[in-house]
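User: Please write out a complete single-protein record containing the residue sequence and its fold in token form, without commentary.

AI:
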Amino acid sequence: MVTPRLWCRHVARAFACLACALIVAGCQTTPPAPAPKAAPPAPPQRAQFVPANWAELQGWNADPVADAWPAFRIGCRALVAKASTRALWQAPCAAAQNIDGGNADAVRAFFVANFSPYRVTAADGNAVGLVTGYYEPLLRGSRSRSDAFGVPLYAPPDDLLTVDLSSLYPELKDKRVRGRLEGKRVVPYWPRAEFERNAASYAGKALVFVDDPIEGFFLEIQGSGRVALDDGSVIRLNYADQNGHPYRSVARVLIDRGELTYERSSMQAIADWARAHPGDVRALLDENPSYVFFREVPPPAPGSLDARIDGPQGALGVPLLAGRAIAVDPRSIPLGAPVFLATTEPLSTRPLQRLTMAQDTGGAIRGAVRADFFWGFGPDAGRAAGRMKQDGQMWLLWPKGAPLPPAP
């Protein structure tokens, strides 16, 4: 008889082999000849933090930093609650309780007194990186499938398996594999194109049905959004999981076909293409095998700080404040840290220089000098986010006297 514990070991081993297949195109059954021992290479440092003075932060004195205060305070709630970050953040978060958050001068003086600025650079010393944008969309939908609402948004299916490979192999830190059982074998989970042919996996898992496949696809990219239902209510959906397949940009597919140029590869351009080619939308979306699953989140308590911020929940576990939150690569920028961002508005040279909080992450946000700027909710935010591909610089604000974040 196979006990549950033994079954788990079998699944873990199967996942390990699946990981090898994905990473090195197959597990070896015969070990290679031993190689001469050598010192392991030092792990690459994804970010360098160069001490700076406040005068170097472009636009620091002109920014109404009090606008970012609610984001900092709600971030403190999460940082102090976690044992791994409590010691670092307890002192500045406690000092913040005595600050008048409506007074920009007091807020600015608080950060100067409690934090030291560091210019963020890549390992090669480059201090300029890419700043994109994201937003919280509003879709139209229904709890029931109909001709008008026929695009399902799913919760994670019951047969989706996930394993953190670092529990088996420490050298595979941050590697997770998703799959499903096929008999006694663990195989990759269904790609997007296979969903409808495997409907049994998703029986009863549709949270809502929306009216536009492109808008549903954009919701996957943004990771969260609201759906106005046909009964007059509005619900919120957040990222819950993913099918384990790599993301492939449909914009890149259209560029490679010659149907879009790189300069016009915005969300608006993709939506325009879809409206002009309704019969080809499904095939285009199937070019991206990745699929995001969602969860429905309850509304915030009336009168709470969460309700006043009124944004989707980010990776830190707190709602995101429009114009004051960014998504970062947490391997470089510590999640929850204040970051001063100096970039420009979409498709312009107008400065966008402001204090933000690194409270979110994203699958496409990789690198040291890399940020995704949260524009907020609705169509105007969507237009700005869809057009934003700007150069930018970042300064990490780190608690005074604390050791800098270690290299990953």
About this structure: Confidence is low (pLDDT under 50) at residues 1-45.
